Amino acid sequence: MTVRTANPIGTFVLFLLALACATHVVGAQATAQDLSADEIAKKMLRADAFAWEGAKTKLRMIILGTDGKRQERALEVVARRQQGLLQTMVRFQAPADIAGTAFLMLERSGQASEQYIYLSGLKRTRRIVGREQEGSFMGSDFTYADMQRIDDKHVKNKRLPDETIGSDATYVIESTVAEGAPSVYGKVVTWVRKSDLVALRTKFFDRKGTLVKTLYARRVSQLEGKPVVVDARMQSANGHATELVIDAMERRDDLPDSTFTPAALERL
Length: 268
Description:
outer membrane lipoprotein receptor (LolB), chain A; about 5% helix; 13-stranded antiparallel beta sheet; about 270 residues; disordered N terminus; mainly beta
């Protein structure tokens, strides 16, 4: 696997992202043992959901069915930030039956993100709204809703006793989502490595307190001196799973406005 040095910024700490499927945490290393849950969460949230800002990222999505069936998909992500708001375009390149299918997310100030999908087989673009956002993204263990950040005013963070994962000391943060907030999750628990604030494990619980799925950071690489999760696995409680593996990244500072429009979804 070749990973070219870039400056991708991508993490979805409370409701991790899915798309990019990699986690990159930016910020100074945390050494103080008396950090509050909110302080730890804020450090993580300096990076945004599946955002490889100013970069092009190539990755593989491997879907593992409960029947043992394996499906592998190749995709490319480009992202940038305009006036502090994230814009992300995802395009599937393989296999042939979904090649050309594309997804666009545009953050909007003070309101929900806009999401669009172009289905190459139907040659049609439609906006993802309402309950559709709770559906599976391209058959994976991520949903469309996973891809947008929840306003932190709806989330209450609590620090649980520290734990160790393998040889790594971690903070453990429990994030409870307020009733009525636009989220299918009621609670998210995140294990954050103390040395670099990488989220090594994240458990997602529904509104009834039932574990729905767990995101594992399986391999972390250093790019430009910063940690990037290049291999992650989202494991659903029903046995279904999705793996995300980054193959290459490259800086792109020349992404034009026309790349991030619904019309661009249909351009191959």
